[in-house]
Structures are given as structure tokens and as C-alpha cells.
Amino acid sequence: MTQAKIGIIGGSGLYQMEALTDLEEVLVETPFGSPSDLIILGTLEGMRVAFLARHGRDHKLLPSELPYRANIYAMKSLGVEYIISASAVGSLKAEVKPLDMVIPDQFLDRTRSRISTFFGDGIVAHIAFGHPVCNQLAAVVGDAISALNLPEVTLHRGGTYICMEGPAFSTQAESNLYRSWGGTVIGMTNLTEAKLAREAEIAYTTLALVTDYDCWHPDHDHVTVDLVIDNLKHNAVNAQKVIQETVKRLSKNLPESEAHSALKYAILTPLAKVPQPRKQQLELLLKKYL
Ligand SMILES: CSC[C@H]1O[C@H](OP(=O)(O)O)[C@H](O)[C@@H]1O
Ligand SMILES: Nc1ncnc2[nH]cnc12
């Protein structure tokens, strides 16, 4: 049974959504283990939404330790069709300032120690990922930001999110390399989520909230947690406003998304030949094709 069509993943600094009412905390077990925390179901702008603190509400999980598959699978099992993912990022461009918001439309993968697929072990699928975020959902978030006219915030529509492994921040040589590759912002989590969301046929967009200039900018201190904490707090307040305005807009019109049929031409293994335990494990993702 669908409990929420909209999922919100809160990153560093965003551990709860204050405007939610009629709260229910749910423990969702998945074939991939437990999610990062209990999922909070609540009402926002008349819609049921599912909120998950990515690192747990007490921020106890490293980017490499996150149960990415359980998080996305849990959202899917609640009926989520759209995920808005709020994330703290460093800026790789002078014109993208701390407190700005970026809606990336591309990712570059610098992760190396995490599983970023539901497939394998007897079932092969290759999803299309040329456009890794849902452009329709991203446009709704962008329009919400523009309409809010937040002081001190410039919106950047589009851009490339470099997803590094962490937990240490980058070296200056790495930061400069990412700049030379055309990176716009850098973080440690969103590419993995975006891939799994696409495999789960959930439309996904990132709301990237800038906290720092990483370590490349000659006029700014290198990023440290201490340095970004105030910006994280400021961004968390703004992110909640943006998410509320986005949900308000989604409550009037849920956009079509190619993500919702991402598996249609992706699975290579004949489903009759998939080992039964795997089929059971992935039933939630596969059932419309069985
Ligand atoms: C702010 S310190 C680095 C930490 O912040 C980002 O987290 P999230 O993507 O969950 O908002 C980044 O990915 C690191 O995990
Ligand atoms: N400079 C940075 N590098 C990686 N992740 C970040 N999250 C916030 N700032 C970051």
C-alpha cells in the first residue's frame, strides 16, 4: 500500500523536517538490511511524505558506511515515486558561493568502496544513466527556489556533482583536477543514491546546498567541519523552505518521468532464468515485469 509518493532524504545538517504534521515513525526492514534510521512519515502541504536522515538523526554513518540500497529500497516499499535529496556540497567554481543552491544535472564518479546496484548474483541489468537526474522533478525544485527569492541565495540550474568516497576531504591537487574536469560541486553521497533510485524506477533530484569552497580557492580557508557548521545550519533552514514549496507544487501536478520505466529495456537476463531467491529479493523492483 502506498504510504507516501514523495521521499525526502536529508543530508548533513538536515536531520528533520519541522513542518511535517501527523508524524509516524516506521522501521522498514529490507532484503538489504535496515535503512540509516527510522523513516518519518508526515503530512506536508496535504501530501504524505517520507523523510529519512541519510547519516542517521545523530549523524553516525560515514558516506562509505551508508546502507544506500536499504535506504532506496525502503523508500520504494513505502510507495515513493519521487525523491528530493538535500545534500551539503563544496563549490568548485568561483561563481558558486557558500549558501547558494545548485541543481546538478550530471555526476562524476570518484567512489570506490560501495555497492551501487541492486543487480548481480544471477540477474544482469544496465539502466540508462546519461541523464542521471529527473529533469522534470529538478525543474519543479528549481522553480520553487526561484519563487521563494531567498536572501543571499543564488540558484544554479545544472552542473556536475563530483561524488568522492571520503571521508577525508580532497587534496588540493584533486580539487584542482575536478575543476579542470568541469566539476561544479563536490560531495560524497548523491551519485550512489541516484543510480539506485534509477534502478528502483524512482525519479530523483539533488538539491545541493553549498557550504564551502573545498580547498582550491586562494582567498578562502580550506574546508573543515568547523568552518562549514554555520552554513550547514543556515542551509538546513532554507532547504526546508524549498522542500515545502516543491511539495506544494507537486501536490498540484506530479510530473511524468522516464525514471518510472527505467527497467523496461534494462534487464538482460530472462526473468524465468533468474534464481528464485534473487527474484524474491528484488520482487518489489521487478514485479511489473514478471
Ligand atoms: C559537511 S561535511 C561532508 C559531508 O557532507 C555531505 O553530506 P550529505 O551529502 O549527506 O549532505 C558530504 O557528502 C559529506 O558526507
Ligand atoms: N568540500 C567538500 N567536499 C566533499 N563533500 C563536501 N560536503 C560539503 N563540502 C564538501
Automatic annotation (TrEMBL):
Record-linked InterPro entries: MTAP (IPR010044), Nucleoside_phosphorylase_d (IPR000845), Nucleoside_phosphorylase_sf (IPR035994), Purine_phosphorylase-2_CS (IPR018099)
Catalytic activity: S-methyl-5'-thioadenosine + phosphate = 5-(methylsulfanyl)-alpha-D-ribose 1-phosphate + adenine
Sites where the protein binds phosphate: S12, R54, H55, S87, A88, T189
EC main group: transferase
Binding site for substrate: M188, D212, Y213, D214
Keyword Glycosyltransferase: yes
EC number: 2.4.2.28
Pathway: Amino-acid biosynthesis; L-methionine biosynthesis via salvage pathway; S-methyl-5-thio-alpha-D-ribose 1-phosphate from S-methyl-5'-thioadenosine (phosphorylase route): step 1/1
Domain Nucleoside phosphorylase positions: 5-247
Pfam families assigned: PNP_UDP_1 (PF01048)
UniProt entry keywords in alphabetical sequence: Glycosyltransferase, Purine salvage, Transferase
Coiled-coil segments: none
Positions bearing the site annotation: Important for substrate specificity: S170, V225
Protein's job: Catalyzes the reversible phosphorylation of S-methyl-5'-thioadenosine (MTA) to adenine and 5-methylthioribose-1-phosphate. Involved in the breakdown of MTA, a major by-product of polyamine biosynthesis. Responsible for the first step in the methionine salvage pathway after MTA has been generated from S-adenosylmethionine. Has broad substrate specificity with 6-aminopurine nucleosides as preferred substrates.
Entry's family note: Belongs to the PNP/MTAP phosphorylase family. MTAP subfamily.
Subunit and partners: Homohexamer. Dimer of a homotrimer.
Protein name in the entry: S-methyl-5'-thioadenosine phosphorylase
